[in-house]
Amino acid sequence: QRLPIQIVPVSLCIPLLICITAIAGTDIFIGSTQVPHSSLKVIFISREAGGIEGKEDIKSMVSGSNNSATLRTEIISAMSEVGLDLTQDILSQCLALATNRRMSAAELADAWDAHSLNAKVTELNELTFAAYRNALVKASPEGQGAVQTRPALGKRQTGSGPSAMLVSPSPTKRSNKSNNKDGLSAVDALVTDDSARVSLSPSSKKNVIPRTPAPKTTPIKLPLFSERPNVGSVVATYNPHKLPALEKEEQTTRLCEVEYDQFDTNVMGPYRYMFSPLEDQVKALDDRILEMGQEMQEQFGLKPKETNDDTTNNDDNHGDEVAPMQAVGVPGQDGVCCIGRICNEAHEGKLNDSSILLEGSHDFSGGRRVHLDVSKLTTGFSLFPGQIVAVEGINAYGGKMTAQRICEGSSHEPLKTSAKELLKLHHDTDHQNGQGLKIMSMSGPYTTSDNLDYEPLTAILEEVLMQKPDVVIMTGPFVDVTHKSIQQGKVELKLEGDEVMTVTHEALFLYMVSDRLRDLYEISDENGEECKTQFVLVPSLDDAIAEPVFPQPGLSDRLPNGGKVVKVPDSDMEIELGTLGLHHVEVQGRSGPVKNLKRRVHCVSNPCTLQINEVTIGITSTDTLLHVFANETHGNLPRPPISTNNGAVSVNPVTTRVAQHLLQQRSYYPMFPAPASANMSANLDLAHMKQWSMPCKPDVLITPSKQKPFAMQVLDSTVVINPGPLTWGTTGGAFAVLDIHPMKRETLESATEANLELEHNIQDRIRVEIKRI
Prior knowledge:
Elements: E1 18-20, E2 28-30, E3 33-35, E4 42-45, H1 55-81, H2 88-101, H3 105-119, H4 129-139, E5 166-167, E6 234-238, E7 258-259, H5 278-300, E8 336-344, E9 356-359, H6 362-365, E10 369-373, E11 381-383, E12 388-394, E13 400-407, E14 416-418, H7 419-427, E15 437-443, H8 455-467, E16 471-475, H9 484-487, E17 492-494, E18 500-502, H10 505-526, E19 534-538, E20 564-567, E21 574-577, H11 582-587, E22 601-603, E23 608-612, E24 615-619, H12 624-631, E25 633-635, H13 653-664, E26 700-702, E27 710-714, E28 718-722, E29 727-728, E30 731-732, E31 734-740, H14 745-753, E32 757-759, H15 762-765, E33 766-772
Parallel strand pairs: 10-13, 15-16, 16-19, 19-22, 24-26, 26-28
Antiparallel strand pairs: 1-4, 2-3, 4-5, 6-33, 7-23, 8-9, 8-12, 9-10, 11-25, 12-13, 14-32, 15-31, 17-18, 20-21, 23-24, 27-28, 29-30, 31-33
C-alpha cells in the first residue's frame, strides 16, 4: 500500500532472520530520513542484535542519496566553467551518466569540452546529448561498460555465530557496536556495488568475494594547439543592423585616444592591503547599502514611512504605487518597502529560497536581518549574496518578510557627449577621419597547459599584425599561477641548443610577452608601416606578476628605472631583473625620452573604466559572471532555449540576467562574501570597495569568463562581451573583434547647430565577432 516501513527490533523468540525489503517502489523511512527504495537492496538483522543499534550503519544507508546531491552540485559547477547551463532534464541525465560510468564532474566537463570542439557543437541539450554520451562510451576501455556482471554467490556459509549481510551502493567501514561475542553489529558494512553479496559468518571470512573494481574511463584528450580545429571560425556574433566589417586598408591612418585618468574609481598605483581595520570594512559595506539605497530612492520615488501615517496597503494588486519605506525588521500589517543586502543564512554553500536573509543598514535599520520569503512572487527574480535590493512586502511579526515585489538595483543613465565633440572625433582629419574603430579583446592564459612556449600569444599577435586594430585589450593571466610548470617552480627559458635556464616570473613575462610586443612594432617598421595599435594590459588575480588583491593595481616594474641587468654566471648572457620590459616596447623604432612619446602600452587596474575616443569601456579580468551564476538563486525565469543543428541559438536568459546584475548593482564585483571555492576565489579588500564600483554605465562591458563566449545587448545601451579564454588546456580558445562605425556627419552637424548632447548608441553602431584562434 506504499506505506512507510518502520524498522523494529527483532524478537528474541524468533530463531530465523527477518528480511525487510523495499518492494513495489516503496521508500523506507528511518526516523525522519527517507531512503529511496533503489538505494536499499536486502537487510538481514540478527536475532542476537536486538534491533538496530548502530547509528553509523543507519547513516550509511542514506549516504547514497547525499552523495548524489553532492555530485549534482559538482556537475552544475563544473559544467558552468565550460560554458554550459544545464536544464533539469539534461542535469539528471548527466548525473546518471556520471554514476553509471563512475566519472567525476570534472571528467564530464573535460569530455564535453573535447566533444564540443570535435563535433562543432556549443549546447548540450536533448538533440546533442546522445552524441556526447556515445563519445564517452567509445572512450572507455573495451569491455568495460556501465553495467557490471554480478559474480555467482554460491550457497550461504553457516557457522556457530550470527550472520549479517547488507548490499547497498554506499561504502562504509564495518561497525562493531553490538555486544555479541563475534563483535558484529545488527546492520553490518555497506558494500559499494551490487556485484557481490558477502557472507560475514565467522566460518566464511576467508571466502569473502572481492569487490568488482570500478571501471576506468579513458579521458578524452584535447587536440594540441598546432592541431586545433576550426581556426578562424565564428563562435558568436552581435550585429543587429548587419553592419559590414571594417577593411584593414582603412585602418592605417586612424587615430584614437585611450584615457582612464578621469575615472576616480581606477586604482592608479600600488597600495597597502591586508591592513584594513574591521571598522573600515564594516563601514564600507554599510556605505554601499546607503549609496545604492539613495540611488533607488531617487529613481523609484521611495519615501520613508511617516510615524503618523495610518493608511494601510494590504492589497497585492496596487499597481505601480510603491509602499512607503521602512527599516528592516520592524513588524507591521501594512505593506512596506525595505532596502538592504541579500545574505545567506547558511554562511556556506549556495543560496537557496529557504536561506535568504535581508540585512538592513546600521544607520537606518540597526543592521537587523530578517528572513525573506519569495514564495509569493509571481515575477522573475534572481538573487545572490551581496546584492543590494529594495523589497516590497509585509513583515507581520518582525522576523520574516513576505516579498511581493523586488527591485534588483538601479543602473546609471547612458552617457552623453556633445555633438560638437563627436563630430571632431569621428570626422576630423586628426582623429578618425570618417573611419571606424577596430578593437580586439582577448583573455589569458596565453600559453597552453603543457608548456611555457606562449604559442597562442604568437598566433594572436600575427592576427593583430594582419588586422591592424586601433586598440588591443588583453586581460590576464599573463603568467598563470595555476599552470602546472609555474606551481612546480619550473619557470624555464629555452636557450640556444638544448640548454634551459630557470628564471623569475618577471623575466618570463619580459622574454615571452614584452619581446613579442616589441617584435610586432619592429616588423611594422621593417615593412615601412608605422604600427598605431595601442595595447591595454589588465592583470588577473591568477597572475604571478601582479598583486593578488581585488581591486588590483596595474602591472608595474618591481625595480625603478627599468630594473637591473645582471650577468649570468659562467656565460656571456645578461638577464634583466625587476622589470617587465614594457619600456622596450615604447622606444622600439622611436627616439626621444619615453615620457614624451605617445603611449603604446597602457597598464591599467583590474577592474578598469576607460574611454577610447567617446566609447566608454568597462573591463574586469575576474570571472564575476561565473561567481554570481554559481551562487545565485532564481525563480520564474524563462526556460533556456534549445539550440538547432547549426548552433544558432539566442543568448541564455539566465546569462543575460547575471550580466544585467553588474550594471544594476553598479559594480564590477557585486558579490559578498566571495565564493570559498578554490577555483572561484577573490581576495576582496573591502576598504577599497569603491574602486570596483562602476562610475558610469559603460557602452561596452568586457567580462572574460569560463562560460560560453557571447556578445549581447543588456539594459538597452550596453553591449556585454565574454571573449572566453585564448587557450583551453592544450588547445586554442577564442578572441573578440569589435568594429565600431562612426555616426553620420549630417546627423552630427545638425545636432551641433542645436548645441545638443547625444547618447553614444554604441549598440546600434557596433559589430562583434568572437572567433576561434
